[in-house]
Amino acid sequence: MASIIPRASARLRLSASSSRVCNDCRRPLTTSFAQRQQQQPTTSQHESQDAKSTHFGFQTVAEEQKAGRVAGVFSSVAATYDTMNDLMSLGIHRLWKDHFVRSLNPGTRSRESQKILDIAGGTGDIAFRLLDHATTINHDSQTSVLVSDINPDMLAEGRKRFSVSPYKAAGRVAFLEANAEDLSAINDNSIDLYTVAFGIRNFTHKQKALAEAYRVLKPGGVFACLEFTPQLRNPLFNAVYKRWSFGAIPLIGQVVAADRDSYQYLVESIEKFPSQEEFAGMIRKAGFLLPGQIGGAEDEGVKAWEDLTFGVAAIHKGVKPV
């Protein structure tokens, strides 16, 4: 496992999966998301002229404020995040994640194990699937996953989940609190597979995060992203989906998690994410080869992404050139 452990950094905290969960990673969740947002400074029109601004859902905020606001959202929803995903997607997110992992076929039958980095994976949902597939399908007992998340509360949920798993004793999982836009604790060319599921839309500088993904991946390594899409191809289905998203999901958040505002943000953040075409262009800009480019001349008949469930979500992949 030593080869996947990041370099020491004063700005990052790493914890191998163990029964000792750092107490200061479990901030009380009694303060609502809305109350925390009210405590943060807002961006006036004059301030936005002097500082770079970005979106936080449908709000415009200074770039330096977004990470803190997103952290507030996920601290608020950490304990109920997976349950809410089931309710919001009617369980379909599980099928998407299973398909995502199967398409990557993690694990290897060779002697050299794979090193996987799961970004924004705090609760360990994707990491579990990756390790289960590697173990049961490819009979690989060596491949390991480094779960990275900017939010300590989400990581605490992941540590709790893995504390009763066989992967803990085998040393096949570790946790890293880090910003995906600055993975300086991880060596260049050290990762075989980089995954991010339903997380990249919350990043302030997505292109910078893609550049970091490119840096840490080995030549031939794979970038894989599962994310919601802002617009569905079918206008009628798109209208029905938007009504469900903006009407039902915040209400479910209020009833189940007593936090309407956080889930209102999560819905709005989908609307602000680039289209499939735009995001594929960003992946290419970072230096990755897209599906259809790999192995020689570009194949215009091969799509750079895979739409799921009428385009509600999409899988994007890129390969770092050898």
UniProtKB/TrEMBL annotation:
One of its GO terms (molecular function) is 2-methoxy-6-polyprenyl-1,4-benzoquinol methyltransferase activity. S-adenosyl-L-methionine binds at residues 123, 149, 179-180. GO terms for biological process: methylation. Keywords: Membrane, Methyltransferase, Mitochondrion, Mitochondrion inner membrane, S-adenosyl-L-methionine, Transferase, Ubiquinone biosynthesis. It is a peripheral membrane protein. Gene3D superfamilies: Vaccinia Virus protein VP39. It is found in: Mitochondrion inner membrane. GO terms for cellular component: extrinsic component of mitochondrial inner membrane. Residues 32-46 have a biased composition (Low complexity). InterPro entries: SAM-dependent_MTases_sf, UbiE/COQ5_MeTrFase, UbiE/COQ5_MeTrFase_CS. Pathway: Cofactor biosynthesis; ubiquinone biosynthesis. It catalyses: a 2-methoxy-6-(all-trans-polyprenyl)benzene-1,4-diol + S-adenosyl-L-methionine = a 5-methoxy-2-methyl-3-(all-trans-polyprenyl)benzene-1,4-diol + S-adenosyl-L-homocysteine + H(+). Its EC number is 2.1.1.201. It is an enzyme of class 2 (transferase). Belongs to the class I-like SAM-binding methyltransferase superfamily. MenG/UbiE family. Component of a multi-subunit COQ enzyme complex, composed of at least COQ3, COQ4, COQ5, COQ6, COQ7 and COQ9. HAMAP family: MenG_UbiE_methyltr. Methyltransferase required for the conversion of 2-polyprenyl-6-methoxy-1,4-benzoquinol (DDMQH2) to 2-polyprenyl-3-methyl-6-methoxy-1,4-benzoquinol (DMQH2). This is 2-methoxy-6-polyprenyl-1,4-benzoquinol methylase, mitochondrial.
